[in-house]
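Regression test attached.
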Amino acid sequence: MSELSERKKLILSAVVEQYIKTGEPIGSKELLALTGMSVSSATVRNEMSELSAMGYLEQPHTSAGRVPSQKGYRYYVDNLMKDREIDELNRRMIEAGISSAAGDPERLIAQAGEVLAELTKCACISTAPGGDAVIIRKIELVPVGIHSAMLVLLTSNGILKSRLCRLDCELTVKILEEFYNIVDSCIIGKPASDISVVSMQTAAASVDSDPFAMLPLMAAVCELARSMEDSRIILGGSSNLFSHKDYGVGAIELFEFLNKREPLSAVISGIKEPLDVIIGKENLYRQLENSSVIVAKYSVGGRDSGSIGLIGPTRMDYESIIPSVKYLTDIVGRMITQAIEE
Amino acid sequence: MSELSERKKLILSAVVEQYIKTGEPIGSKELLALTGMSVSSATVRNEMSELSAMGYLEQPHTSAGRVPSQKGYRYYVDNLMKDREIDELNRRMIEAGISSAAGDPERLIAQAGEVLAELTKCACISTAPGGDAVIIRKIELVPVGIHSAMLVLLTSNGILKSRLCRLDCELTVKILEEFYNIVDSCIIGKPASDISVVSMQTAAASVDSDPFAMLPLMAAVCELARSMEDSRIILGGSSNLFSHKDYGVGAIELFEFLNKREPLSAVISGIKEPLDVIIGKENLYRQLENSSVIVAKYSVGGRDSGSIGLIGPTRMDYESIIPSVKYLTDIVGRMITQAIEE
DNA sequence: ATTAGCACTCTTGCTTTTTGAGTGCTAAAA
DNA sequence: TTTTAGCACTCAAAAAGCAAGAGTGCTAAT
């Protein structure tokens, strides 16, 4: 597939990089100045013309310069781009930005997304650590009033959710006791995905005293367990999208698409490589056809646990962003591993 | 100040209402058709001309109809607008929208804001219940690993915050015990605003064993107490602003302004009336000069506890939105009161 | 105090012109 | 065969011009 002549590679690469920098189509003269090649502009024009025919470049209209096509970006990312280390500056920013949230995995991921988004002027979607085997570690029921209590649920990946719930009857010591019995026998140590409405109902029914007292509590447990799954997706810095004139008013549509949340998990999950770049129309969703997505997985304790994805215009600075994403997933993985395993 | 003739009032009122409806400037003929007055268009023109001179109306350009000026809106809101009940439909929507979050004050406010924003196509900023006298009701420290524990803090207004924290040494029973001692004696029952870094440090120093073990925990308590204050502001439905063509591209700037969060508390606090309308340039911030803000306070157990504010274009439907806001603050206040006091 | 009539002003939408960057092609040169 | 100079051609974007229409403000009559 790498059948391009060296000169073509040089030209393609220059077009991509310059276009990323300026956003303007590149003409033959400009290109000449840029690369410092010692041929005439006519020669360059011929080469560009061929690159167009091959599908790597395209022109907005007949009398304009060239811009990279989707295929052009792809070739650039796969073959031409240098594999840089992360900028010193970016590294510092990332470290400074996330250090404050070091101990708390959920906050850490949220913070990391925020920092990365700010740094790259992209939107960031990420998943809190989790994966297949989230098990419930601990449940506490803290009485708040006579009829209400705060239910707190803690999972093996260090995520905590809470919810205030109201009882129909008074919250007696007996009820508390029975609640903890059920919890200890049927919930603790189980995967969160196993907690279903029916399993909770049968558990509640097995209780000595009034089982109806237990129901609202069990329902709340279910709801929390469920929300563990749902709320894993975190969106950060989505308003950065407005700063790119590439999108124009389309930014609004994209913004609203991202804010729907539901489709996002499909966007960043289901990659096989540790880092993947999806360019333009390669995306599943029409709404992303002018965007590129860079996703990387992070792993906790040696196993894949979540991923962090960046969304920005196709014309994004791949060469500098990719190392940042790589670095971030790396460090975040290490930090969470450290926080959880003692 | 109510020195306008009846006819002028009728005209001003019609201009405001029609402009709110269509967004187009109103000409003399259209106005005539609208009000059904039995005079000629020339007369109406004279009246409009006077209203312009008085500052209640203005024209985008010489040959266009009139639109309300800021002063015009102000007069309309203060004197002309009918004091309606909330629409049956809106009431239903609100009730349906917030019922699911009934038990949990923080979620309730967030949800209420979301619903109100959706209903009115405005952005909604609100403050979670709190006010001066938030006291700390309960603190739990749930061990997670040997070196880390989840700190959970619950306040009198039903808000719960949690944070995972790491210790430098092992988390022994002794440390737990001493921690709870400090908590019981120095923290529980105190207002959150009293929890300062120094008071925590002295508390930690008073402990038998290694006081350094306690420090990270105390720091975390501080941080949580502080975050009670900071995170009270909730922003909802801000992307609705994009649906108003009034803002044009200015919507982006406004959106970014709102997303900064910091200035928002100044926007919705500091009102004296139970419900206040701030129109256009009356706002403190330049970024809001084309917006109006409707703020209402809600009270929990008889005392002011927080507020809910709507932000939309100056050309918003005051007459129908105001009753909705009034109703929502009312019902939210009642619900939280019920949830907290048993 | 109203009203009819009319001249005047400006936006809006449309078409036309101009300009300039950039190409593609051809024919000559290397 | 590859490169280059030269030139005609294309097309978007900016500028300029034009016609229509809505709406006003003023004046003089009612």
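Expected vs. actual: identical. The radius of gyration of chain A is 26 Å.
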